[in-house]
Amino acid sequence: MITGFVALYIFMLAAFTGYEIIGRVPTILHTPLMSGSNFVHGIVLVGSMVALGNANGFWQILIGFVGVLLAAGNVTGGFVVTDRMLGMFKSSED
Questions:
Q1: Which residue ranges make up each domain of the chain?
Q2: Upper half-sphere CA count for residue 3 (Cβ side, 13 Å)
Q3: DSSP string spanning 37-61?
Q4: What is the crossing angle of helices 38-53 and 58-87, to 10°?
Q5: Cα angle 37-54-72, degrees, rounded to a multiple of 5
């Protein structure tokens, strides 16, 4: 069982690592990398729905619901970025 302190430590380590990795990616690669990782956003959404389904108390349900909302927004944003990126490759017809 993971205690609160260990979970906080893992979260902080993951946040720092993610910030350092994303910060070193050249600007030109951000859009293709984000559009290529849409499946990861879908996995996060499924995981948050599973967590919400197993929630028992009010606070667990509230946190699970917020997680589902944020994950759904993440999925939607990923598809919007992909659509905009693909729109840049369309030929302009007058």
A1: 4-87
A2: 2
A3: THHHHHHHHHHHHHHHHT--SHHHH
A4: 160
A5: 30
In 3D, which of 63, 38, 40, 69 has the Cα closest to residue 51? Answer: 63
Q: What is the pTM of this model?
A: 0.60
- Asked if the model's pLDDT at residue 32 lies above 70, the reply is no
- Mean pLDDT across the stretch 11-36? 78
Q: Which tokens hold the place of 51?
A: 């967590």
The mean pLDDT of the chain is: 82
Please provide the DSSP assignment of 27-39 as one string: GGGHHHHHHHTHH
Distances (CA, A) of 33 to 18, 20, 77, 84: 14, 15, 13, 14
